[in-house]
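pasting for ref
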Amino acid sequence: MKNIDLSLYLVTDNSDDEEKFLKTIEEAMLGGVSIIQIREKTAETLDFYNLALKVKEITTKYNIPLIINDRVDIALAIDADGVHVGQSDMPCDVTRELIGEDKILGVSAATISEAKKAENDGADYIGTGAIFPTTTKKDADSVSKKELIEIVNSIDIPVVAIGGINLNNASELKDTGIAGLSVVSVIMNSDNPKLNSQKLLKIFNS
């Protein structure tokens, strides 16, 4: 099993202001974000590639793993640290073959059977949600706290919780056995991404 710090996992959302986007990411890293996933659902391939290269410069500077959502081709093209796939993306076992054994592979799973299959097919960690109502992924399945705990206990690889996690509700996940909090808006839409990252990490580690 790879030793990956998943404690504060930032997933980006689409950016109109690239300069602000990159500054937010850097501030979040300074605040303690331990791993970053770029999610660009609507970007053209070249735009995604160019943005990913710029983010990689920052993640390399702070020695933080960079994960690409969905796009195995982009991940390989920029030599990212890994890929995250959902249930309707490239199958986990095929993705593992394409990226090799050394890269990080995350899979979204909302049920025990999905999580077990991902583990068997070569995933390094599972992302489970939506734990709370979320506006960034409107089609996300909802997963209760009880279901989250059951998924955590059913597999040997780490699980991060995602979906609507913020400063007010993060403490509700303390006793679930998760390896980390995966967040979007609470950092990406914040006026102080560094401070919010520090606060989230403090809640998770307390």
